[in-house]
Design a protein that fits this description.
- The structure is a single chain.
- Helices cover 45% and strands 12% of the residues.
- It is built from six helices and five strands.
- The C terminus is likely disordered.
- The strands form two sheets. The chain has a three-stranded antiparallel sheet.
Length: 256
Amino acid sequence: MSKRQIQKMLRLMAGGEPVQVTSAMASVKKLAKLAFVAQQFGYEYADVRQGGANNSSLVMLIVPDPSPYARARAAQNWAQYPNAGDGVSLPPFVPDALELLKARINFDLTGKGTEKRMLFAGIGATVGAGAVAVQDGGGALLWAGVLWGVLMGILGIGFVVNRRRNAKFAARLQAAGFMPVADESGRVRYLPPGGQLPGHGNPFAQQPYPQPQPYPQAPPQPQPYPQAPPQPYASQPHASQPHGPQQNPYWQPPSR
C-alpha cells in the first residue's frame, strides 16, 4: 500500500462517488488496508473482482456510507487527522478490523463466482480433449483421456479447497455479527448489521448511490401574532339638546 495510492483514493472519495481501487499484485492484505482507511473517512467496502490481463490483479469497489455512525466517525477523523490527504497522517490500523475485511474480501473471491469459473474450465477441457480425440484418434485418444483425467482431478481438488476456505471465512464473519444476504443473481454476500447490498446484481455497474443528507434542522417555532397597541378611546361628541320652538314676540292671543 503506497502513499500515492492512498492520496489518489482520498482525492476520488472527495467527489462522493463510488471508487475502484486496483491491486496489481492481487494482494488481499493490501486491499484490506485500503478499505480500512476508506472506512475511517466515510466510505465502506462493497465488492472485489479479478481484473487485468489474465485476471492477475484485484479490483476493489468502495462506496459512500451514509449511515450516521460512519458520518460521525469520518467527521471525527478529519478533525483529528486534518493532513490525512498526504497519505501518511492516518488513523492507526486495528488488527481485528483488518482481519474482518480480509475475510470479506476472501469470501467474495472464493464464492459461487469462482466455482462457476472452475466449472466452465472443466467444460472447456472436456470439449478440447474430445475434439483432439475425434480428429487424431489412435494414440491421441489415450493422451487426451489422460490429460482430461489430470485436469478433472485438479479441478476437483480446487473445488474442495475453495469450499473449505469459503466456509472458514463465512464462519469468521458470522461470529463477528455479519449477516449473509443474497443478491438478485443468488450470490451470497456477508454484510455488517444494517448494511445493504451496493447496486443490483453487479455492484460494479454504475448505480446511483445515496448522498449523505445534511443533519435535519428543527422547524421554526411559530411566532405570536403582534398585538396592536391599545388605542385611546375616541372622545364622544356631546349630544346636543334639542331646542324648543322659538316664541314669537309679536304673537298676541286672539280677542274674544
